[in-house]
Every structure is written in C-alpha cells, then in structure tokens.
Amino acid sequence: MPITIYGIKNCDTMKKARAWLDDHGVAYDFHDYKLAGIGKDKLKQWSDELGWETLLNRAGTTFKKLPDSDREGLNERKALALMLAQPSMIKRPVLDLGGKLLVGFKPDIYAKEVTSKSRGRKV
C-alpha cells in the first residue's frame, strides 16, 4: 500500500519530513490539504484512530487567532469542524503508512516505523 504524507507545502516541519523521506529513498504521495482539502470521513477516521486531541494543532497561529468561544469547550465534533474549516489546524505531517498513522515528524520514529518495504522511487 502506498505511503501518503498529508500536510501543507510551505510548512517547515513538512519540508523536514519530506526531505527525510526523499533522503531515505521512500516513495510517497503528497496530499496538500490546504490546496486539496481533507475529507470529513478521512478526518473522522484519523480521529477515531488517534484521538482528536492528537490531530488538533493548538500551538499554531490559526488556532491561537480563533475567538475564545471557538477555543473553549472543545470536543471531537467541534474540533473536527474547526479542522475541516481550516485544515492548517491539523498537526503536520500526518504520515499514512497504509495501516498505521504517524503525526508530527521525529526522525527516530520515522526510521523505526517506515520499513524497507516502502523504499523506492518517489511518486
């Protein structure tokens, strides 16, 4: 199953993650959810697997600029609605290994989780 990395092209963390994949010869598809959006079903699937708290980027400026009323009383429904409306509120990157999801970029975790089976030419 192909690897897909989800994020935003100009994000520094995304650049590091993609450079790591490229440097290690890992083939992947890139999904820019700022340009292409993210499906409600896909986001819900991620939330079910990882928890919405893991997906929501509370440290980013998009979240910090929200009115207090939007930031207070967060639950899954409210958080998913915020992330669908403004995908830059989704932590980056989300790496879909075809059966396992990784959120954020840590080289040691990528080295452990991205198997040699996924190595090959970048798509």
From TrEMBL:
Highest taxon above the source species: Bacteria
CDD domains named in the record: ArsC_Yffb
InterPro entries: Arsenate_reductase-like, Thioredoxin-like_sf, Tscrpt_reg_Spx/MgsR
PROSITE patterns documented for this protein: ARSC
Family: Belongs to the ArsC family.
UniProt protein name: ArsC family reductase
UniProt organism field: Bradyrhizobium australiense
